[in-house]
Design goal:
By secondary structure, this protein is α/β, with parallel strands linked by helices. The chain is built from ten helices and 16 strands. The protein starts with 6 loop residues before the first helix and ends in a 23-residue tail after the last helix.
Amino acid sequence: MNRWVILAAAGLLLSIVGQASAQSEGAPLPNIVFIMADDLGYGDLSCYGQKKFKTPNIDRLAAEGLRFTDYYAGATVCAPSRCVLMTGLHTGHCYIRGNSKLSLRAGDVTVAEMLQKAGYTCGQFGKWGLGGEKTGGMPTKQGFNTFYGYLDQHHAHNYFPTFLIRNTERVPLTNVVPEEDPLGGGVATERNQYSPDLIFGEALKFLDDNKSKPFFLYLSITLPHANNEAKQKGMEIPDYGSFKNEDWPDAQKGLAAMIRRLDDQVGEVLDKLNELGLDGKTLVMFTSDNGPHREGGNNPDFFDSNGPYRGIKRDLYEGGIRVPLLARWPGRIAKGTTTAYQGYHGDMFATFCDLAGIRTLPDLDSLSLAPLLLGRPEDQQTHKYLYWEFHERGFTQAVRHGEWKAVRDGGEKGKLQLYNLIDDPGETTDLAATDKEVARQMALFMKDAHVDSRDWPIRTEKKKPQAKADAK
């Protein structure tokens, strides 16, 4: 039987075995705070090269911890990236491989379920994107004790919605959205309650309420995503703050103000952990779900949001999937360190379970980063390759293997592009014709990684032309 067919049932059983292993060791369980921004580019943080504005609190994570330079999102858009994160399976194997209305099934195993069974209280605040209302994919049915925010990614476009979801119920807000769709999307005409502030307040309360027991906080902040329905005025923010007098387009003031607000929230999390005496007991990680967007009037070229890389959100070039990752754990992770280790969101499953003492896992595309985080790089396993596929514009695949990167449209009959990321990080020179053996091996990796899904059939029509930011 195909191993992916039996994964769910085996995973549930093995998570129970893992719980017993963790408990038998008797070691204190570390708290885990995983903060994920939405559509934040590699170059949007000053610790990754942003020059036009500063992100001092996020930079503090880098100064007090470990900064990854070659870390990747699970996908190039929202839902599959979050599915990879939660299930530890890359997009050639996971259930949700694109933005859709699919919901995780009751048998799908999430990292939150594993941690919950090991004694963690799990809370998610922000955007979920993996299960709609009244489905088995809701967070509280996938391992989280509590949830507050958006279930649906379309609903999450609206920063001034008429409701948010608490656990399984809608909580009304005082905003007015005259042409609201059934899922809560639209553009508010009366803006009274800003969702990122409400959601963040609930996350801080979760820390207060769980300070005396091990917790997993998944803070999936919607900043700096755009409200696509607002078109050119989609960078929804109460005010531009310190950027109001800059000689920039309004959309760029809005993006900078959103990132500044995000940075402030990271600072408040660190302050809260210090206040509660939890600094040395808590791993804090920060990343993004995919590369920067060209939506809501935003121009990713203005701030060079993808840094030195080609591509943006919806591309499988580096700019669409290479994202920041910062890890801070005072007394455990060395300060001010950097690594070029090639990991991705799927690795969080094995990492968090390893730190929680869970030794037996379901069959995953996930490696624990704990040795690397804790100063034992000689014990760190490496991936044979990293893999992505994308279904919105035909069928695109990408593989990273050491210094090499391959991208291919149209499946096995498509033309494979090959780049050496050490010599050519901007993916400008296709070497497939000159390094034929490498290209052949990369094609074999693609074949090995992809398992057919009836929900995600391979379509071979051409994708849309790339935007300006896609060619650096």
